[in-house]
Amino acid sequence: MTDLSVIAPVYNELENVEPLYRKMHEALSRVGRSYEIILVDDGSTDGTWEKLRALAGTCRDLKLIRLRRNFGQTAAMSAGLDHAQGEIIITMDADLQNDPEDIPLLLERMDQGFDVVSGWRKDRKDAFVHRRLPSMAANALISRITGVYLHDFGCTLKAYRREVMKNVHLYGDLHRFIPALANWVGGSVTEVVVKHHPRRHGKSKYGLARITRVILDLLTVSFLLRYSKSPIQIFGKWGLLTGLLGLFLLVFVMAANLSANLFGTEFAAGLLKRPFWVITPFMLIFFGVQFISMGLLAEIQIRTYHESQGKPIYVIRETVEARG
Question: Which fold has domain 2-227?
């Protein structure tokens, strides 16, 4: 069994992949543990794959995975995790902004008994307005909702124990929430300050446009962490609330109708002439039934999901493994 697996998703990083491998190899060779380097080409179109193939002919302990198209960072990360053999799995970006020299820092914290060690880019070398400021707000929000308090969920440089990651299933764009998902299955999480370098080659794949995706993914993670075992708890609560409110209004309207018929109360008679008070109770009761029905259907889907076979979120074109 290999001690370490280092995974880096790669997308259009032609100028970075060779120095990336060299830096990884130099840092890992001094750790004193067996290791493998897994580079996952996520459908690059700039010649990155050809460069990686050339590297594989001269480098050792390098494993290459090529996806059929650009599936996204989560899918590329998932492909690397599925093919990793290491007892400890380390992930990092391929743009040379993460520093492989920080890997021993992660391992030192792992040796203290933690299951997940997340990098914290305390002195981040990115633009403040459209990178750092949104990231600060997102990290605070993610920490508050998930209950896992980290300064930098977006830092890809992280270390995980294999036995924890085998219980974490990725899909969509959930790679940035892995510490929260790992904590959900019982993993202990901590962080360590790591270096961050400015990008020298290529273009960033991130921008303000991803804010909406992060928010939607956060809603998904929040639901998974709180209600995935029993979705009826969230849908049922809303169903009971709206249903009971509708029932209360219906009783109120019936009482008003009775009062108008028996006593000729002007207020009650005027109330019944307004469609809102007649339609609303039935609508609320209907919505209540709908919410509860959605919860029951979600319960069935959750049971099916947990009992069915997992389906990969990527398709591999080819793999190359170098042991030179």
Answer: Spore Coat Polysaccharide Biosynthesis Protein SpsA; Chain A (3.90.550)
